[in-house]
Amino acid sequence: MSGKGACRDNAVVERFFGSLKHEWLLNVYHLTRDGMKKGVQAYIKYYNHIRLHTANGDQTPINYENSLMKVSGMS
């Protein structure tokens, strides 16, 4: 964070945790800590590899990042 109250610095992480909470956490019953851990891991995989993001031109974050690497010649 660049300073107190600089909420935009943390926007990407806040967006992810908001999605985790509203798309998954509130809709799934968790019996054990291990089950919740596995569920969060599965959600992170879904979020990065399957879920389309409109801010990325309807691409997954992984595909969007890979397309940027190709454009920049870093792949």
Structural class: mainly alpha
The 3D shape can be described as extended
Our count of helices gives 3
The largest sheet, given as strand count, sense and whether it forms a barrel, is:
none
| Annotation, overall tally of beta strands | 0
Q: What integer value in Å does the Rg equal?
A: 15 Å
Distance between the amino and carboxyl termini: 30 Å
Identify low-pLDDT runs. Answer: none
- Number of structural domains: 1
Mean pLDDT score, rounded? Answer: 85
Helix-strand pattern = HHH
Strand content: under 5%
Helix content: 55-70%
Describe the structure concisely.
By secondary structure, the protein is mainly α.
What does this structure look like?
By secondary structure, the protein is mainly α. It has one domain. It contains three helices and no strands. The mean pLDDT is 85.
